[in-house]
Automatic annotation (TrEMBL):
Single GO term (MF): microtubule binding
Family: Belongs to the JAKMIP family.
Sequence segments annotated as region (Disordered): 1-23, 267-296
Protein name, UniProt field: Janus kinase and microtubule interacting protein 1
Start-end of Polar residues biased regions: 267-276
Organism of derivation: Canis lupus dingo (dingo)
Source lineage: Eukaryota, Metazoa, Chordata, Craniata, Vertebrata
KW Coiled coil (keyword) present: yes
Chain ranges passing through the membrane: none
Coiled-coil annotated spans: 122-212, 330-419, 493-590
Protein keywords: Coiled coil
Domain Janus kinase and microtubule-interacting protein C-terminal, first and last residues per copy: 247-427
């Protein structure tokens, strides 16, 4: 007993270490993801800073362009002033009008002064224009440099955006997943609280029932045996309760944050349950005290060990579920929970009946062993029936799948036959045109019965006539157009040849596909026959097992057990069987609907492919000459 408990104690510790290592790996992954997120966030900040620099450069570029426009306007104004000065110089250099002699000297003096002033203005304007030209060149060079820098920064920003886009999407998905996991953790914590409350209530009820026993010193041997039976049933109740907790807490842990809080809660809960079980039982006599304490201590140790194993398995299952990414059906979970609760109530009723009978009879407990043996055999037979029913449903699903595939192939064959019947006779003859002797148009003329025309000589004559200068322009144009029309006709016939080859290839492909479908139909019919035979064999096995079950129930312990069962228990058993049947039928219907949806999708894809072929055939029709 100690070796078994030691081995069982080492297993959960190893599983707990493995789960803890996996938890640490997940936390390391989470920290690495957070570090990557911070790095990408810093990159995004750098990109935003570069965008701000680009905007500042664009503003500065706009200011510089405004300044260049102002300088250009000033240059134009100076050019206009220079033109006016030059016109004034020409005016002063022109022959002068006759003036009085006194006035001529004054005019000469004024002309000399004006000339000196104009020369100074011209020099000043030229210097200013040169300065403005140099400033304009500098601004243009700076403008080009800024534009190149802006284009380079825009290119780099686009590249960084393309690189960061998957990371940003990954970050969003991770945030959303974290929110969902936090919500699921909150929901599961509420469920855990409710289940722990129910567990405490059930343990209080069991402890209250255990305190109602009658203890005597005359029938110690029979009572110890009866107490072992009661203890065995109580352990069965606890195991079923653990199964209920397992089904309700299967997907509690779906996060990167580990299992520390749950392990603490579950361990404290198991310790409190062990302590309550130990403290609630009071011995009646000193002789029974020693035996009861030993058996109860062993039962308590076994219970604590089972709870630890259950917690480790729960953590490992949650970790595996998180890695696989599977989900549970809430409706199925609720049904199984109801069924297990019904089994729990039935076992509690059995415990109460046994305690009452032990109180009344005291010693006669042989029929209890017979009843337990019959219950075990009944459970084995029910498990066999369930396995065979599962195999039967699987075979039915496979047979339905084969039927659906057969119907789909028959529909496809009928469709191809109908298409072949409706389509016109497609006797295409590929005429290969020789490369050196004659052209495609020449061969077409021979096929039509026009054998006197030589297309190559006709083309040469048309070229000669087009070059003849004695003809009128209209005649030359008509001859040239006739030559081009003949060349286009020859090109068109070559295109028709390519279209004919493509269509014949498509027809050959369709014929091969039709043969392939017919062969596949034969294979599926053979497979359907094989599946039908397997289904018939499964039906025969089910009938044999039902017969063996009926014979087992007709035996004497079976009659006692059936008499011991009450009407409520029989109704519960029938309801449980009906639930299982409905569940199997629902699963088979869901599988059939899924197979039907897949077949419909395949049919739609085949129709789309056929529509594409029709569109290709319509896009390249045979022209009528």
């Amino acid at each position: 007993m100690s070796k078994k408990s030691r081995n069982k104690g080492e297993k959960p510790e190893m599983e707990a270490d493995a789960v803890q290592m996996a938890n640490e790996e997940l936390r390391a992954k989470l920290t690495s993801i957070q570090i990557e997120f911070q790095q990408e966030k810093s990159k995004m900040d750098e990109i935003r800073g570069k965008d701000r620099v680009i905007l500042a450069l664009e503003k500065e570029l706009g200011v510089q362009t405004g300044q260049t426009q102002k300088l250009l306007l000033q240059k134009e104004a100076l050019d206009e002033q220079l033109v006016q000065v030059k016109e004034a110089e020409r005016y002063h250099s022109s022959p002068k009008r006759e003036l009085p002699p006194g006035i001529g000297d004054m005019a000469e003096l004024m002309g000399v002064q004006d000339q000196h002033m104009d020369e100074r203005d011209v020099r000043r304007f030229q210097l200013k224009i040169a300065e403005l030209n140099s400033v304009i060149r500098k601004l243009e060079d700076r403008n080009t440099l800024l534009a190149d820098e802006r284009n380079e920064l825009l290119k780099r920003s686009r590249e960084t955006e393309v690189q960061l886009k998957p990371l940003v999407e990954k970050n969003k998905r991770m945030n959303k997943k974290n929110e969902d996991l936090l919500q699921s953790i909150q929901r599961m914590e509420e469920k855990i609280k409710n289940l722990t409350r129910e567990n405490v209530e059930m343990k209080e009820k069991l402890s209250a029932q255990a305190s109602l026993k009658r203890h005597t010193s005359l029938n110690d041997l029979s009572l110890t045996r009866d107490e072992q039976e009661i203890e065995f049933l109580r352990l069965q109740v606890l195991e079923q309760q653990h199964v209920i907790d397992d089904l309700s807490l299967k997907h509690v842990v779906e996060t990167f944050f580990g299992f520390d809080e749950e392990s603490v809660d579950s361990e404290t809960l198991s310790e409190t349950s062990c302590n309550t079980d130990r403290t609630d039982r009071a011995p009646a006599t000193p002789e029974e005290d020693l035996e009861d304490t030993t058996t109860r201590e062993e039962a308590d140790l076994r219970f604590c060990q089972l709870t630890r194993e259950y917690q480790a398995l729960q953590r490992a299952y949650a970790l595996l579920q998180e890695q696989v990414g599977g989900t549970l059906d809430a409706e199925r979970e609720a049904r199984t929970r109801e069924q297990l609760q019904a089994d729990l109530l039935r076992c509690q009723a059995k415990i109460e009946d046994l305690e009452k009978l032990l109180v009344e009879k005291g010693q006669d407990s042989k029929w209890v062993e017979e009843k337990q043996l019959l219950i075990r055999t009944n459970q084995d037979l029910l498990e066999k029936i369930y396995r065979l029913e599962m195999e039967e449903s699987q075979l039915k699903n496979e047979m339905q799948d084969a039927k659906d595939q057969n119907e789909l192939l028959e529909f496809r064959v009928l469709e191809l036959e109908e298409r072949e019947r409706r389509s016109p006779a497609f006797n295409l003859q590929i005429t290969t045109f020789p490369e050196n002797n004659s052209s495609a148009l020449q061969l077409f003329c021979h096929q039509e019965g026009v054998k006197d025309v030589n297309v190559s000589e006709l083309m040469k004559k048309l070229d000669i006539l087009g070059d003849n200068g004695n003809l009128r322009n209209e005649e030359q144009v008509a001859i040239i157009q006739a030559g081009t029309v003949l060349a286009l006709c020859e090109k068109w016939l070559k295109q028709i040849e390519g279209t004919e080859a493509a269509l014949t290839q498509k027809m050959l492909d369709l014929e091969r596909e039709k043969d392939l479908f017919s062969r596949q139909k034969g294979y599926l019919e053979e497979e359907l026959d094989y599946r039908k035979e397997a289904l018939d064999q499964a039906y025969l096995k089910i009938q044999e097992l039902e017969a063996t079950l009926y014979n087992a129930l007709q035996q004497e312990p079976g009659r006692r057990a059936s008499e011991a069962l009450s009407e409520g228990q029989r109704e519960d058993l029938q309801a449980a069987v009906e639930k299982v049947r409905r569940q199997i039928l629902r699963q088979s219907r869901e599988f059939d609907s899924q197979v039907l949806r897949e077949r419909m999708e395949l049919l739609q894809q085949a129709q789309q492919v056929r529509g594409g072929w029709r569109a290709q055939g319509a896009s390249c029709p045979l022209p009528s000459l």
